[in-house]
Fold each of these.
Amino acid sequence: MDDLLKFTYAVDGDNFTSAGQASVNVKKNLRQLGFDAETIRRVSIAMYEGEINMVIHAGGGNAEVFVKDDCIEIVLTDNGPGIANVEQAMQEGFSTAPDNIRSLGFGAGMGLPNMKRYTDSMTIESEVGKGTKITMKVLL
Amino acid sequence: MTVRQLANNEGFEALALPEEDRVIDGVYIGDLLSWVMGRAKADNAWITIMSNINIVAVASLADVACIVLAENVSPEQKVIDMANAKGINIIKSALTAYEVAVLLSKNN
Ligand SMILES: Nc1ncnc2c1ncn2[C@@H]1O[C@H](COP(=O)(O)OP(=O)(O)OP(=O)(O)O)[C@@H](O)[C@H]1O
Ligand SMILES: [Mg+2]
């Protein structure tokens, strides 16, 4: 199927102040396109969690959002350390976030579970030492 | 109650009110950001003691009506500037999270 629209963002790995900007921008774009509030909320929260994970755990990465006829697809790609045990990472409460990150309010181990909960499908491809690719879809 | 009406209460101070007419519907209390993202509902007043810059993005994406910083927690000026730029309301209160929630509950 043809992509109707595509947004691409480079997510900076060492700038916490701007972390989340890509997601906030996607939210704005989807609102301008006239999507309903709940769809926008689901897409932008799922993307934010993934974006923050790339900043905290992977030193940054790349985010792409495709607006299609039947869904909005979010693809997050990084060249970080990868996730050794995806099943464990997906559990609520599991986190390897260091203390300085926890003091900012991150590290509850709820990000990946939120991404799954707010989207209709989510796949994680990850290789230790190479990186991680997460694909999420919210059906329209 | 609107965000402006909440800010007008004794012991409350408006730090950023770019969307002062937003109506508050319900309350969420929490400091762990992913927990808030997962559980807070749109139009909630989000009561927290977390004041770093990331609360602005969380409030925007979770679509809460406002952030209420309890117990007189004060954010840095750049957080207030960012909130104004992104249309996020921030109110500071001398009350505890519990007391703010009770006040909101009485007025709903
Ligand atoms: N892109 C990534 N690259 C490498 N590891 C990751 C990545 N995303 C997640 N992880 C790993 O999976 C764990 C769980 O991620 P999750 O988002 O659920 O929690 P968290 O980021 O630690 O805390 P929270 O999201 O609640 O602030 C992380 O602690 C980290 O070990
Ligand atoms: Mg996370």
Amino acid sequence: MFTHVAILLAAMAAAFALAKLAKLSTELSILAMALVGALAAGQGIPLRHLAEGSVAYLDICLIFVTATLFMNVVKEAGGIDYLVRKVFIRFHKRRAVLLVILMLLMLIPGALTGAGSVSVLVVGGTVALVLRGLGLKDEHVAAMVFLLAGLSAVAPPVNIWAMITTAGTAIPYVGFELPLGIPVLALGLFVTFYYGMRGEARDLGSVLATMPEPPAGMRAWRVGAPFLLLAAFIAVPRIWPFALPTLGLPIGFAASGFLAWALSPRKIDILRLSRETMDQLLPLLGTCIIVGILLQVMTLNGVRGLLSLSIISLPTVAIFLLLPVAMPLSEGILTFGGAAVFGIPLIWTLNSIGLNPVPALSGLSLLWMLGDALPPTALIGRLTVQSTGYAGRYWSFVKSCWLPWLVITLTGTLMVVFSKQLGALVL
Amino acid sequence: MASVITLLYYALCVYIAAFLALGFARTRDWQKAALQLVVLLPFVLRVLRLK
Amino acid sequence: MTRLIFAKILAACLFLACLVGGGLEMRGLRTYKESLVKGPGVTGTGRLSDYLPALKGSWGDTNLYFLDSGKPGGTALILGGTHPNEPSSIVAAFVLVEQALPEAGKLIVIPHYNRSGSTATQPMGAYPQFISIKTGWGEQKFRMGDRLANPLDQWPDPEVYVHYPSRQMLSNVDMRNVNRTWPGRADGALAERIGAAAMELIRREKVDFVVDTHGAELLYPVTNCIVAPDQGASIAQLAALDLTATEFEVHVEPSPAKFRGVSHREIADHSEAVPFLLESPDPFLDQPTGPKTEALELDGKDEFLLAAARRGLLFTDYDEKGKSMEERAGRHISVSRQLAAQWSLFNPERIVAFSCPGYAEFVANGLGPYFRDPAAAPEGSVVLE
Ligand SMILES: [Zn+2]
């Protein structure tokens, strides 16, 4: 069994490499890897498994589509230009205050939805514009947006990695506020000031001259109302959870997008914009859906079991040493699936040697978050490039993350190692 | 009320599926065409209430 | 240009194959009906919607079987299929309905407490869609479902599931987990309505104790056990001691006070009944296993888990013999019988007693002999589940 499954794993890796060599896109290469995994296991083309796996991330895809469409409407209406201008005029002399505002702007959407991608899609572009105005280099802008988006996904109240793992391990999702909140805020401030204090702010006039002019009829309430509506969609189910049926984020984004469209001083062709949005999102949606298919095939042929067995079979010290590399990589390959494949058995194993699962899981999610910049999926990394308008080489922006990356890795790993001692944070 | 919301979600899936199908028909890049169909699959499965 | 058209046609064919081929296969699971033969112990049937009309016509509605001894005593409710991907629970409930003979008091059995969840398998789980148990007359075939209610019956999920009434935040998908939606909400989502209906059933039928049967991962610390709240601790302890001395190892885990939404907590807090949750070890559920096959579900033999066992990673004994369905389903029935016996010692005016083949019989003879042939069953006794 071991050799058989190990051969399947090797065949899948080879299929990916070959597909890449044949100039297939990353998404199709992962799909090829999945198909080869099924074929080599003697399953033929398992139609039902392909179909079933494809549905795994349907709900996350709906959030991506509606959130992006919402932001694109706001952008098209001139709302972003208006907002950036106002913020910049008001705070350009008080850099530290401005930076903290930007950090909170980045952290909130992801904290509430659990998806760092929502932070990038909703505010990433705006924040990038302001950061450029502050004189930050392009790599640093992208690095900062990426890292803050990652931290926003880790931030409480909603941390999807922790939720997947707690749901799979029958540990209640409670007591995560401080173990997640404290490191996220501390690391967030570190990231913000590490990048934010570099570069000279250009003088107001020349910055404003490079910024696009908002349309004449644009007013604060026209920009604000859709965001307020969105905030209501997010807040109301938490404050009065039993007053309304489940709405879900996609409806919130869709309704806010509709409002932004109605309030726009410019006429917006929503059909054209939808088409463009779908075009823009195709690689991201493709990645999510294909990773679902890949995980289904890996479960079908036993590769998932082998991977999860190999990590928990290691001696504890080796697990600790491997975490900083293995967890980001698992996220890079499987996105949230990494939490299911490794998180669930890891937490039980660590629990059995007396570690506290809540800080441990908080630490793990800091490691997973970094993986969102790693290929093949590079989910948030790619979105960051897209929405910040970063034009340089992908790896040079990732490289400029090195110090915060190291600090976050260290924090995450130490939180796992000392999770027992950190138990006091769990209320 | 809950069923109205569920219906809206199905409508949303139909809307998205329509653009994906359109994109598939229009694109001149075969890789993109293939990807459009992969993405289309879960939306159609849900709309047809198969999964 | 022609190459483009060719590629598009090829892609479209694959797409249609997945849609039609895969879709029809999944539709086959959704519409498949298991046949269950009412045994001589069954005195009546009902529907969960009898206790909450809002469930009527939904996939949350499900069959109840009453096994009334006609002699005075208490009432026990036995839930199967809370998590349909833990099929030993459903198998045990089927055998109870087909074979149990009530001797005092009354039994109520629900084989598919989460019927919606039993109609779809888990995305990324790569489950088989059915499992079949060989019998003298053919095969008794069961649907293999998911842990959660089918999204076709409850959609969308919230960003975070706020449990009613405690307001505890749980993972968003747990809103479709009927063992996180106790005590339920009559006007809530489907899974919450199922919980509310069951609570109403418990109150109206004056249920004294509830047994909620499950399967658990071997890597999960809570396995081979009875989870009980304070009210049931001594009964569970005595049952566990007795069984460990005579048949198989089983121990008691206290129901955590802070873990909301689960049967062993909320039934205790919101009704007079005492809940017990049974976990029997199910290798199929573990992460580090080989392919998820029907054989793995039936015999529970897996090399990867064996390796994990040798490294001391598992919370239960495990060897080449695996953990068979016979053992796992048998445990549920034997523990339930034993719980009834201990309950009756503590509550002589509300005794519950029944006979039914369990662990010893299944391990010795297999499960086959304990399923009745629907083709040979008396008219009107076959129910489609
Ligand atoms: Zn269970």
